[in-house]
Write a structure and sequence with these properties.
- This protein has helices spanning 20-36, 108-126, 148-161, and strands at residues 41-46, 50-51, 83-91, 96-102, 132-137, 164-169.
- The protein has 171 residues and is of the alpha/beta class.
- It has a domain at 22-46 and 79-169: 2-Layer Sandwich (Nucleotidyltransferase, domain 5).
- α3 (148-161) links the parallel β5 (132-137) and β6 (164-169).
- α2 (108-126) runs parallel beside α3.
- The longest helix has 19 residues, at 108-126.
- The radius of gyration is 20 Å and the shape is globular.
């Protein structure tokens, strides 16, 4: 018998919604029109949660030969130390990203606070005459289409900035 130690491989998917491609085409046409008109278009998402502290990660850095960074032998989270929740805002027209890192929880309020931070520090400077903002987001997580907190916070952002905000959720 030929056995080997093997891990799982993600290959199984459910059936796609019959209109999935049409939904992507619709979002793409909205994005193209907004970018062509010079309006701000951002794509948002929460990135991988990270342990804060002296833990191993897959990154690399230039160091003197034979002197690797020493980290904890185990990656068990310490309940007294928060995790980092990076939330990314990507400006499609300018091909630039903005990351806000929180340490509390990945919530709809945090997601919109991150967008608010992008608008305050980048968006209003780059788009001084903007009256509309188009946001693309995946359908789940802290910016999911079902979350009432997300919707409420987006409305608060629209009220505070006087922007008309349109959100397109990917299928």
């Amino acid at each position: 018998m030929a056995y080997s130690l093997q891990g799982n491989r993600k290959t199984e998917e459910g059936t796609d919604h019959p209109d999935r491609d049409a939904q992507f085409q619709y979002i793409n046409s909205h994005v193209r029109r907004a970018v062509a008109a010079g309006r701000p278009v951002i794509s948002v998402d929460t990135k991988k949660k990270e342990l804060i502290g002296n833990y191993e990660n897959q990154g690399r850095q230039w160091r003197k030969s034979k002197s690797p960074a020493l980290v904890n032998g185990h990656d068990f989270p310490d309940p007294s130390v928060p995790r980092a929740y990076p939330y990314g805002v990507y400006d499609l027209a300018r091909n630039k990203g903005f990351v806000n890192v929180g340490t509390d929880h990945d919530t709809g309020a945090f997601a919109v606070a991150s967008i608010r931070g992008w608008w305050r520090f980048e968006g209003q400077r780059l788009y001084p005459n903007a009256r509309r903002l188009l946001i693309t987001a995946d359908g789940g997580g802290s910016n999911g289409y079902r979350l009432r907190v997300w919707k409420l916070e987006v409305q608060k952002l629209a009220d505070a900035t006087t922007l008309s905000i349109e959100v397109c959720h990917f299928p």
